[in-house]
Specification:
It is a single chain. By secondary structure, this protein is of the alpha/beta class. It has two domains: about 130 residues, Rossmann fold; about 110 residues, no CATH class. Helix content is about 30%, strand content about 15%. It contains ten helices and eleven strands. The strands form three sheets. It has a five-stranded parallel β-sheet, with no helix packed on it. Strands 5-4-3-6 form a four-stranded parallel β-sheet, sandwiched between helices. Strands 1-2 form a two-stranded antiparallel sheet. Helix 1 runs parallel beside helix 5 and helix 1 packs parallel to helix 8.
Amino acid sequence: MLRHNMREIMKRGIIQSRGLGDIIIALPIAHYYYTEHGDEIYWPICQEFIEHFQRHVPWVTWLPCVDKTGLFFYEEPVQLLAEVGVEDTLYLYQYLSSYPELTDPELFSILKFDQYKYWIAGVPFLRKWRLSECITRDVEAEEDLLASLGISGDYCVIHTEASDYSVKFDRSWIDPGVQVIEIKGNETYSILNWIPIISGASKFIGIDSSIANMVDSMGICGPDLYWIRKRNPGWDGCPVLGSTWTIIENEDVPMEDRTRVNPRMEADRKLNPPRSGYPTSFMSALKK
């Protein structure tokens, strides 16, 4: 068996098959185990995301998840990792409703979702902002994308369409003399090819999504940065931000605190389902 610094090289799996922003956030975790431990990294992700990473992150063996019924979250990745003989796996979801028992309820209650991933993986959280070390830039593809946009003069980049959500905001404050470049949800380029275009803009305005997370984790500081909060059904899922952002109000998302799920309660409900049928006595009814 191969060795790295006198340590046997391990096949290490990552379970975080989506969303795209979560994969961006988690890349430095995998890179830590690749560089510091010499591990071989195997990472099942949803098939439609493969094109974003295969050329840019060649040190990962990407395994496509093809299921469309929900098994792509956990069951399919577990199977794919077993098939390639993975020896140890990092489960990076903060919370899955189908597997609440896999969430650490104490950490869940005190950490943001991105902090949780790093803590549970045993990786220093500051590594999150070393995304630039994890990727290989595709200069030719970046130049092709730049040429297709027809940019001339001052411009800003706007991204308001996430994979599961889009938002409108008041644009009246944007200088009408500034060219607006929109990142659409149906782009065929890898999101990583947008790095130089965003870096050269005067402003980047983005919804809480993969693009905004990439900008923050890359430490892109050329443009003024504007973050649009995303609707989250259970709680505010905004990550910890390392750059200086201005928050743009999203009328769809009130600023009051949202109710968080309780992983311990959900796990108990799953593992100890309520008894069915009618109670046998008045006292047993009171105990239900």
